[in-house]
Amino acid sequence: MSFICTPPTDYFASEAFLTLSTHIITAISMPVHVLGLYIILYKTPKAMSSVKYSFVNLHIWILIYDNSLGFLTIPYLLLPCMAGYTLGVLSYTGINEYYMVVLVMGSCANVLISIMAVFENRFDIICDFSWKRYWSKVRKGWLVTHYVLAILLFLPMKFMMPDPEAAKKKVFDALPCLTDKIRAVPVFILTEDWTYHIVALGSQLFIGLSEVGFFIDCTVFYIIRLLKSKRMSSATIKLQIKFLIALCIQMAVPGFLLVIPLIYSLFSITFDYYNQGFQNIVIALETTHGLLSTFTMIFIHHPYRVALFEMLPERV
Fold it and tell me: How far is CA 69 from the centre of its chain?
């Protein structure tokens, strides 16, 4: 079966574009990541101390994800086939590509879990439902379970990998427009049947987003209850609402970049469409996730924004 195959002959479809763009983005992002981590650790005011280490945890996983994608692996994917090869630093170490998949996808999953942890943290601090005492006993186990499952989901994939040579021939037959250069590269095929991968990763995403929605809804509901009962001053409630909105914006803006590759992947698979130029641009855009996430965090929260401006040199 042949797919809609656009010959990968333009610059955007080349290895040179993918490596150059990701290296430039990584070179810009790393100092920003370090700056963001410094501001969280040393410029977080007491009023935000309850979310400090949740922010640190999230920031570290974002840093790991960005660098695993845009520096360590740099995947040259051949969607709609679950195949490709890597151009990053790890490609020169002899490490099996399967473990690179686990590194990238696992760190991406942990970014989602860390976002969940931020909103769960707000829920735990603000809400005081009658049933919350039971939740307090299991919340740490709940979080650890998520991190463990994020890795265990990838173990069955190891045993689903097909015979490399036979699978490679099927990929090349399905994508007849591939250049001789790509055909000469040791292409890695993760699977020929997407079923488990889509169900496992899709379920993880759905459950994660559902839990985020649950914690946000519970927090908003409890704030409204406090407002009606006048158990908390209106000024304090306004601050809580303002901070919750800031958190939602902080997570939603960079979260949009996490959705871009998912949308393109689904489109490519659904319509059997191969376009290496589009695929490379999607990967390059994805590596800006951490850069945008850090800037959003700094500028959406007033104390961090002030701390950044104080670090800038004064105009002469």
Answer: 10
Q: What is the pLDDT of residue 270?
A: 85
How far apart CA 9 and CA 181 sit, in angstroms, is: 11
Pairing of strands 75-77, 4-6: unpaired
Mutual angle of helices 15-43 and 276-286, in 10-degree steps: 20
Kindly report, residue by residue over 53-68, the tens digit of the pLDDT.
Answer: 999 999 999 999 999 9
Nearest CA-CA partner of 172 in 74, 81, 264: 81
Q: Measuring CA to CA, which residue among 106, 115, 125 is closest to residue 57?
A: 115
What is the Cα 294 distance to its own chain's centre? 13
Residue with tokens 């379920």: 203
User: Quick check: 37 and 59 in contact, CB under 8 A?
Assistant: yes
Q: What is the pLDDT of residues 207-233, one digit of tens each?
A: 999 999 999 999 999 888 888 887 777
pTM above 0.70, yes or no: yes
Paired with 189 in beta bridges are 83
Amino acid at residue number 113: I
Q: How far is CA 137 from CA 9, 117, 141, in A?
A: 58, 15, 8
Q: Which domains does the chain have, with CATH numbers?
A: 4-311 (1.20.1070.10)
- Residue 118 in contact with residue 55, Cβ under 8 Å? yes
Residue with tokens 């959003």: 296
